[in-house]
Amino acid sequence: xxxxxxxxxxxxxxxxxxxxxxxxxxxxxxxxxxxxxxxxxxxxxxxxxxxxxxxxxxxxxxxxxxxxxxxxxxxxxxxxxxxxxxxxxxxxxxxxxxxxxxxxxxxxxxxxxxxxxxxxxxxxxxxxxxxxxxxxxxxxxxxxxxxxxxxxxxxxxxxxxxxxxxxxxxxxxxxxxxxxxxxxxxxxxxxxxxxxxxxxxxxxxxxxxxxxxxxxxxxxxxxxxxxxxxxxxxxxxxxxxxxxxxx
Length: 247
Prior knowledge:
Structural class: alpha/beta
Radius of gyration: 18 Å
Mean pLDDT: 95
Strand content: 15-25%
Number of strands: 12
Helix content: 25-40%
Shape: globular
Strand order of the largest sheet: 2-1-3-4-5-9-12
Distance between the termini: 35 Å
Order of helices and strands: EHEHEHEHEHEEEHEEHEEH
């Protein structure tokens, strides 16, 4: 089947394209780099010709609250309209475990709007909720750094390797639409403090990591388990320690 991957040249999208093509599907990477802009609609109609499935793993280039909201509103509006015109029968979107619990954050408010638009579109869909990626431990640290100290909330996290996320998205894309959420997570649970500390150590980053009861996660205050998946989550095969040892 033809699968168009929006954001198909990025970290997750490039892996999804590769995995689908390896399994005999026609996976097409669609992004501004390939002449497809979902915010303006440029190139969308041509890209979706003959497509059975659209996978959206795109992300806003800006994390400013207003910019993120505008990106997901405009992009999802244009994408869903183009899918309806092209006869696409399955819309797959990558989102985040706990999105509905993170609504103090402007970013996750925008992700919730994206999800709601998909649900209301009438197009059969599957939303893949993933936990934080291994690769973003440093990004999380940077967002919570003052001087040489990283202060993080006392919460738990079950991070996942990007390759395992891509595999889950690919499996979902070629499966039957669930018209609901599929959760994916890594095989191990950490405190956020330990995850970031180990992630920084893998890159010989000397910053000190401490727990701060008032610490926020992308602007949101969280309960201890807000970032953890439910009991039916699909678990990736890659352990953080094994991944870290290869960095």
